[in-house]
Specification:
By secondary structure, the chain is α+β, with helices and mostly antiparallel strands. About 50% of the residues lie in helices and about 10% in strands. It has eleven helices and four strands. The chain has a four-stranded mixed sheet. Helix 10 links the parallel strand 2 and strand 3. The longest helix has about 35 residues.
Length: about 290
């Protein structure tokens, strides 16, 4: 290994080597390994004045936006108008165009209208980003193994299902939820455990001023059963003093899924849950992703 502070080393000769390698397109790491100089300060001195090869530069996703923002500013557009056109933040626009001349002032009404359209464009951009994040996350899940569904169902039940209490013996499986996805997962979990569909009993909990018939039809479709097979719907009395958020066409109440003759299943679920807790606390079976 070459030591730069060794008197036998000619700094200028070493610099010539470093510059020649840089002009061949080598990165700092490649030059460092080639001439055996591992001190960053010395390497900086050796490469002083030499431009970085294009292939080593990290691409900047906002370069195109920056150029477009500067072009629009030179055409006399305000920050609000540029934001409306490009959908980027005003702080970024300010950073990109602050050295350019300001456009003439506009009336308050025109400025307000432009600002409003800019804000609407920002909301639309954020919504696109939000949906893209959700889509990417959903696609990352892939297929579930039977064991993954088994463990997921246990956690789901222990979070949302009926549980036994010392003061109220409830050794039966009953699951209540308003999320159709949760209901579908719970039913898939029961199928995995080979619980016959004949043991499933459903009934609806819903406010009396909702569209009860439509909700019953909706949940029958989710559970792939018939409305005629549902138990009696429980209607919650409407309190006019309460400002409820769960209204409108998307409100369909909560579905209750009962599993008949399920005392033994409930005991196993509770045991499985205790096993998950013990394994999590002790670290048994845990490994990194």
């Amino acid at each position: 290994m070459t030591a730069i502070n060794d008197k036998s080393v000619d700094f200028e000769a070493l610099r010539e080597q470093a510059v020649a390698l840089r002009r061949e397109g080598l990165s700092r790491r490649q030059i460092r390994d080639r001439i055996h100089v591992h001190n960053n300060d010395i390497l900086n001195r050796l490469l002083e004045g030499e431009p970085v090869p294009e292939w080593t530069k990290r691409p900047n996703a906002k370069d195109d936006l920056r150029e477009k923002a500067r072009e629009l500013r030179l055409r006399g557009l305000t920050y609000d108008q540029i934001q409306l056109e490009l959908g980027c933040s005003k702080s970024s626009i300010s950073l990109w165009v602050r050295d350019l001349p300001k456009p003439p002032k506009r009336s308050r009404e025109e400025a307000s209208a432009i600002a409003r359209r800019g804000w609407e464009a920002t909301l639309q951009r954020r919504e696109r980003e939000r949906q893209e994040t959700k889509r990417t996350a959903a696609e990352s899940i892939g297929d579930l193994s039977e064991r993954e569904l088994f463990l997921l169902g246990i956690g789901l039940y222990w979070a949302e299902g009926t549980k036994d209490k010392p003061h109220a013996r409830r050794e039966r499986v009953a699951f209540v939820n308003s999320d159709p996805g949760m209901i579908r997962i719970f039913l898939a979990w029961l199928d995995l455990l080979e619980v016959p569909r004949q043991q499933h009993k459903y009934h609806l909990l819903i406010h009396e001023n909702a569209d009860v018939a439509e909700a019953e039809t909706y949940w029958a479709d989710v559970t792939q059963s018939r409305v005629e097979d549902f138990g009696k719907t429980t209607l919650k009395k409407h309190n006019p003093k309460t400002v409820r958020k769960n209204t409108g066409g998307t409100y369909r109440g909560c579905l209750v899924v009962h599993v008949q003759q399920s005392a033994d299943l409930y005991r196993r679920v509770e045991g499985w849950w205790c096993g998950i807790v013990d394994a999590s606390v002790s670290g048994r079976g845990l490994s990194g992703p």
